[in-house]
Amino acid sequence: MTPEPAPIQRTLRIALVVALALLGLWVAHPFLPALLWAVVLAIAVAPAYARAEANWPAGKSLWLPLLFTAAVGLAVLVPLSFGILRAAREAHDIALWLANARANGIPEPLWVTQLPFPHQTIDDWWALNLATPDAAQRQFGHLSDPEVLARSRAFGTLVLRKAVVFLFTLLAFFFMLRNQDLIAAQARHAADRLFGPAGERIGVQMIRSVRGTIDGLVLVGIGEGVLMAIAYIAAGIPHPVLLGALTAVAAMIPFAVVLPVGGVALYLLGQGAVGWAIAIIVTGLVVVFVADHFVRPVLIGGATRLPFLWVLIGILGGVETIGLLGLFIGPAVMAALILLWRELVAPTA
């Protein structure tokens, strides 16, 4: 039998474990977001992967993880490449517009003069800030060629860094799918040793929370984007599919959908289509109201067993703290904390 370690040995062992854990986190912290994204993706595709694994058990060691990894990569890269190509095509027109604005100023749009309320303040502001070449130069002079070139280089460096992180995410996602049974067994054993019977319940609740958040944010956001894309097509907006995709992404972040919908409405106002602008605003309000007050609370709150207020706090706090990844990590953390609280205050037998 192994002798029980002395108290000083136990203390030194704990200190060594803590020190090594902190050192490991410090070494791996640049890739922690990629690992967390891989975990979120693995949880998201787990039901579909289980069905595929049941139908094709021989391919679970290599081909199924590879197929799902390729599908996730294409689902991200194809729309992103389309958006980049579209932006590159528009960049030349934007450069010409800026050059013309700096040389000649920007005349006040006709729709401003047709507003059904006094607009002298708008007229004065426009004349002071945009109407003349000198005023336009003050507004857009910083967008000179050297400045644009410097910003383009910084943007290119950022894109390269994000591409490396994305590739690492796909690599981690592949290995998580390939070794999911082993990882799940080890996580269950570790949770049981550290937290007892509550450990597995906390893990299950966090997984359920991530999956419910994906259903409530991603799938509902895509649905909102599709509905608004149809409205954009009806209103004659250029590039309605691309704008619908941007609306879908914005709809995944609480209260952010107002940006693309409001931008489209302003564009329509600039074209003099006041009726269509009102129609887009009303459609956006109806779609967001139904999604946020009926669909999302059922999907997210039902999965996390949390009041939607706490889900919203988890989402907004997560986004504020760790960015887009916080959309999924925040509600999972809140679900675990609420579960621990409920067990703490539960009456004992």
- What separation lies between the terminal Cα atoms? 37 Å
Element pattern in H and E? HHHHHHHHHHHHHH
**Biggest sheet statistics:** none
State the total count of DSSP E strands: 0
Q: Name the poorly predicted regions.
A: none
Shape: elongated
Radius of gyration: 26 Å
Q: Given the structure, what is the number of helices?
A: 14
Q: What fraction, in percent, of the residue positions are helical?
A: over 70%
- Give the rounded overall mean pLDDT: 80
Beta percentage is: under 5%
Structural class: mainly alpha
Annotate the secondary structure layout.
Layout: H1 7-28, H2 32-55, H3 63-104, H4 110-113, H5 120-129, H6 133-140, H7 145-178, H8 180-195, H9 197-235, H10 240-251, H11 258-270, H12 274-304, H13 308-322, H14 326-345
Name some characteristics of this structure:
349 residues; mainly alpha; 14 helices
Describe this structure in words.
By secondary structure, the chain is mostly helical. It is built from 14 helices and no strands. The longest helix has 42 residues.
Quick recap:
The protein has helices at residues 7-28, 32-55, 63-104, 110-113, 120-129, 133-140, 145-178, 180-195, 197-235, 240-251, 258-270, 274-304, 308-322, 326-345. By secondary structure, the chain is mainly α. Helix 9 runs antiparallel to helix 14 and helix 13 (308-322) crosses helix 14 (326-345).
